[in-house]
Design goal:
Strand content: 5-15%
CATH topology of one domain: Bacterial polysaccharide co-polymerase-like
Distance between the termini: 29 Å
CATH class of one domain: Alpha Beta
Helix content: 55-70%
CATH architecture of one domain: 2-Layer Sandwich
Number of strands: 8
Order of helices and strands: EEHHEHHHEEHEEHHEH
């Protein structure tokens, strides 16, 4: 069987004659790939000790009591305003005894620095709550920062919600003075009473406004190293394949040159 004047036996013959070149190239590329996978991630990570290339993640949400007496839209607005406030952010850094962040003195921070397109702080609303994502370095004390963040945020939320809680208490205490044509008296009384209890508990500080859903954490070196290894491994396999293809091409080219010389 021939294909373009070249039989399968001819192809196998060329591959066998130049097997040392082909196998040598393949083994060399695989060896270099293994070295890259083993050593590049580790050496790269050594250089990011002071580089804010990692991400810290804290997950928080409002407490059930607050959700009872505050409508969701108002609550979302208050939470986002609070946790993205530069004053809260700077206070959390100070509570973690951090004076310089990302090469900037914390006294020089403003809203633009924090929330621009490539900003340092990002807030994502999830079904379970809010993700507070912060660019950090390996030496950044993210746990202490998160504790300071939730503490200061609760103080700010308390200031915002106290008038709201007082309003819900007044509404229940004066429920007979209001007209609720949209619902039976028992239903509106029950809802108003639940809001009254939740608001009363909030005013006597039985529960905070915000709570941490789980412990804050950062993208650890081991996780980042695994990600880097996966990326490098994929690229190394592709390069090894191309090296193999080039070695086969070179083998045929070398065979063609040899044949032409013999003819001459």
């Amino acid at each position: 069987m021939k294909m373009d004047d070249l039989s399968i036996l001819d192809i196998l013959s060329v591959l066998l004659r130049h097997r040392k070149i082909i196998l040598g190239t393949l083994l060399a590329s695989l060896f270099l790939s293994v070295c890259a996978v083993l050593f590049i991630p580790r050496n790269y990570l050594k250089g990011i000790d002071n580089d804010y290339s990692l991400s810290g993640l804290a997950q928080l949400d409002s407490t059930p009591g607050v959700q009872t007496f505050v409508d969701s839209r108002t609550l979302d607005n208050y939470i986002v305003r609070t946790i993205t406030d530069p004053g809260i952010f700077i206070g959390a850094l100070k509570s973690a005894k951090i004076q310089t962040y990302a090469g900037i003195n914390i006294n020089n921070f403003d809203k633009t620095i924090l929330h621009n397109k490539n900003g340092l702080l990002r807030v994502e609303k999830e079904q379970e709550g809010y993700n507070l994502i912060l660019k950090v370095s390996k030496s950044f004390d993210f746990d202490s920062f998160s504790i300071g963040m939730i503490t200061l945020s609760n103080k700010r939320m308390e200031e915002l919600l106290i008038p709201y809680a007082e309003e819900k208490i007044w509404e229940f205490e004066n429920i007979t003075l209001r007209d609720f044509p949209e619902a039976p008296y028992e239903e509106r009384f029950s809802k108003s009473y639940n809001r009254y209890l939740a608001a009363s508990g909030f005013l006597v500080r039985k529960y905070p406004s915000l709570t941490m859903l789980q412990s804050s954490y950062t993208l650890m070196e081991t996780a980042l190293e695994d990600d880097l290894r996966t990326i490098i491994m994929r690229k190394a396999l592709v390069l090894s394949f191309f090296a193999f293809v080039l070695s086969v091409f070179f083998a045929f080219l070398l065979d063609w040159v040899t044949r032409n010389r013999e003819k001459v």
